[in-house]
Amino acid sequence: MLNQTMLRNLCRVALAEDVGSGDATTLAVVPEGLQVSAKMATRQDCVVAGLPLAQTLFHELDPTLSFEPCVEDGTRCQRGQVLAWITGSARSILTGERTALNFVQRYSGIATQTRKYVDALGDSPTRILDTRKTTPGLRALEKYAVLMGGGQNHRFGLYDRVMIKDNHREMAKFLGPDSIQRAVAACRERYPDLEVEVEADSLDDVRAALAANAEYILLDNMTNEQMAEAIALREGYASRLEASGNITLERLPSLAHLGLDYISVGALTHSVPAVDIGLDIDPVE
C-alpha cells in the first residue's frame, strides 16, 4: 500500500509546511558540519507503524542521512525500545525530527488501537474492519496502519463497493415501494462488477437485503439480541454480516462468537491518541 511516489509527495508537502524558508533556530544554533547519531524510541508499549514514511522524510530532507530501522512496521514494541537510528547532519536531523515523529506517532497510534480491538476478539473468526472515517488525503496511510495492527480494510472509497446507507434508502423510496430491493437492482444494473452492501437498521431491513441477495449486510447500531436474530435469518443465504455502531472494546468479547463475519470500527482512525515516541540525539565521536 505504501507507494513510494505518494510517500515522497506527502513528505515534500509536510516539509514545506514546517520548514518553509528555513529552520531558523537550528540554522542559528547548530554548527554546520556537526555530525550526530539519533535514536527514535517509543516511550510506551505500542504496535509501530510509519517507519518507512519517516525514512522517506529524512531522505527527502537530506539524502546523505542514514536511516536504519531496528524493527518492522507491525511489531509489538515495549516501552523504551529503539525503533530506528538516524545518523548524519545534526541540522538535518533536528529539522526533520518533529514531522517524522508526528507521522510515526500517529500511525503507531492507529496500529496500537487496532491491535487492542483485534485482541479483544480472542480466537473469534470475526474480523475487525476500518471505515472511511479517516483524515482527508491520508486514507491510504491510515488504512495501512490498520493492517499493521492486525485489522482488515473495508472499502477504500466510494468507487470500489456499493454501500446503500439509510439516506440512499430514503431517496430510493421516491422510486416506489421496496426501496432496498429497488436500490440494489439499480446499483447492480449500473455497476455489475461491484459488490453490494446494504445498511440495515432493523430486522425487516435485513430480510429485504437478504431477499435482494446483497453480498454484505451492515447491522447498524443493533443490540446483541437483534444481531443474533439477523444471523439466524441469514441461514441459507450467502450474505456476509457486518456489525457497526456503538462498538467498544468492552463489548467485543460478547460479539466474538455470535457468528458475525466482520465488525467495523470508526474509532480505529477518527479519534486515536498518538503514541509517545521520542528522538534522542548524541554527538558522533
Question: Could you say how many structural domains there are in total?
Answer: 2
CATH superfamily of the largest domain: Aldolase class I
Give the SSE string.
HHEEHEEEHEHEHHEHEHEHEE
Helix % is 40-55%
**CATH level-1 class of the largest domain:** Alpha Beta
What is the gyration radius calculated from CA atoms?
A: 23 Å
Q: How many β strands by DSSP?
A: 12
CATH architecture of the largest domain: Alpha-Beta Barrel
Average pLDDT across residues? 95
User: Spatial order of the strands in the main sheet?
Assistant: 6-11-10-9-8-7
> What's the number of helices?
10
CATH fold group of the largest domain: TIM Barrel
Classify the secondary structure makeup into a structural class. alpha/beta
Structure commentary:
With 285 residues, the protein is an alpha/beta fold. It has two domains: 4-116 and 272-283, Aldehyde Oxidoreductase, domain 3 (Alpha-Beta Complex), CATH 3.90.1170.20; 119-268, Aldolase class I (TIM Barrel). The protein has ten helices and twelve strands. The chain has helices spanning 4-19, 24-29, 51-61, 90-120, 139-148, 166-172, 179-190, 203-211, 224-233, 252-255; strands spanning 35-42, 46-47, 66-69, 76-77, 82-89, 127-129, 162-164, 196-200, 216-220, 240-244, 262-264, 277-283. Helix 10 links the parallel strand 10 and strand 11. Helix 1 crosses helix 3, helix 4 packs across helix 5 and helix 8 (203-211) packs parallel to helix 9 (224-233). The protein is elongated, with a radius of gyration of 23 Å. The chain starts with a helix and ends with a strand. The model has no long low-confidence stretch (mean pLDDT 95).
